[in-house]
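Justification of resources, computational component.

The compute hours requested in this renewal are based largely on the per-chain cost of generating structure records like the one below. Each record pairs the submitted sequence with a full C-alpha cell output. That output is archived, and it is also reused by downstream analysis tasks.
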Amino acid sequence: MRRVFGSVRARAALGATVVVAVALVAAGIAVLQVLGADLSDQARLKAQMDARGVASKIAAGVGYRALELDESVPVQVVDDDGRVRAVSEDLEAVTGTGSRSVKPVAAAAPDDDGDDGDDSGDGDAGSVSSDEEYSEGSARIDGETGDYVWAAVEATDRRGEDVTVYAGAPLATERGAVSTVRDAMLIGLPLLLLVVAAVTWLVTRRALRPVEGIRREMAAITASTDLSRRVPEPGSHDEVARLARTTNETLAALETSVERQRAFVADASHELRSPVASLRTQLEVGAAHPELLDVDGAVEDVVRLQRLAADLLLLARLDAGERPHGETPVALDALVREELAQRTADRVPVRGETAPVAVRGSRGQLARVLGNLVDNAQRHARGGVRVAVRAEGRWAVLEVADDGAGVPEGERERIFERFVRLDDARSRDDGGAGLGLAIARDVVARHGGTLTVGAAPEGGALFRMRLPVG
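The structure output for this chain reads:
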C-alpha cells in the first residue's frame, strides 16, 4: 500500500480526486441551498397570492360562509379573538396558524340573512393589509397530512372587524425536488470521482512514461559505469524533454570530466615515473658506490618532483572549483616589474612595456601565471621576450611575446591541454611537464578572464591575458 501511494501517479490521482470531491461537495451544497431557497420562495409567493385573494373577497364584503374556499388550498380565517371564522373544505387539522381549530364559529351579531353580513350594504368598504407574515406548519386535508408554509394577511371586513387570513402552500414539492437532486448527486458524485481518478491516473502515467525511461537508463548507466550512454529524449517540448536534455548534458560533462581525470592520472603517473626512476637509480648507485653519487642530478630530480607535485596539487584544487582566495586589488604593472627584476640573469632577456592598470584577484596566483608565460616564452625565443601591460576599456591586458617559431594555428588550443608538448624531441629536463599553460588558463578563468595565443609581431607566439579591471 505504501509503495502504491508513494508513486507520483497515485498521489496525483488522489490529489485530483480530493480536490474535485471538495469542489463538487461545495457546489452541491450551494446548489441544494439555492434550489431550496428558490422553491421555498415560490411556495411563499403562492401562499401569499392565495391569502390575498381570500382577504380581498372579505374586504369586498363577501360573507365568511360564502367565500367558496378551494379544497386544494388550505385556508383559515381567524379574528382578533382567536375565533375561526372560515376554513377551506376537507381541512381536518392544522398547525402553524392562528388557531389549531378547524371549526368555524358564527358571527357575534349576524345580519338579517344569517350570512355574517355578506350583503348588509350599510357598512364602509373593508381593506387588506400590505404586510404579510410567514410560518411553517402542517395540515391534514381529506385524511392526508403534509407540511405547509403559511402566509398570513390581515384584512378588515365591511363591518370593521379585523381578521387574519392564513393560506398554505405545500412544501412537499420543494423537499421532493431537493431530495431528488441530492440523491442524484449522491449517485453521480462517486461515479464522477472514479472517472476523475482514472483519467488522472492514465494522463499522469502517459506523461511520466518518459521519466520512467530516463530512470531505467540512468539505472543501467549506474550499473554499467558506461558514461557514453544517453537517456532517451522525448520529442515533446515540455518539462520532461528539458529534463532529458539536461540529464544528457550532465552525463556528457561527467563523461568529459572522468575522461579528463583518467588522462590526468595516467599522464601524471607517466611524468612522475621518469624523475622517480632516475632518482632511485642515482641513490642506489650512491649507496653501492658513494664516490659515483651525482648529488647535483639528484637534487635536480627532487626539484622537478617538487615542482610537478605542486603543479598537480594546484590543478586538483582548480578542478575542485577553488576560487581565488584573498581577492585584493593587484597592480599588474608593478607585478610585471617585480617579475622581470628577478630575471636579469636569464639566458633570454625580457623587455617590459607597462602602463598603470589594476585588477582584483590573488596576487600569488597571477604571479604564477605571469611566471609560467615568461618561462614558456623564454624556452622558445631566439633572442628576446617582450611583456606588455595596458588597459583596454574595462579590461586589463597582459601580453607575452617571443621571437621564436610560434605556434601553428591548428595547435593553438591544444597547447593549453595538460601534459601537451608540441616538440616531442625536446628533453623533459628542458621542456617541463607540459602543465604550465594549462595552469595559467585555469587560473585566469577562475579570475573571470581569458587567455589566448596568436602570432606576435616579432614572429613568434603572442599570449594575451584579459582580466576585468579592478
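Confidence is low (pLDDT under 50) at residues 108-122, 424-430. The radius of gyration is 52 Å.
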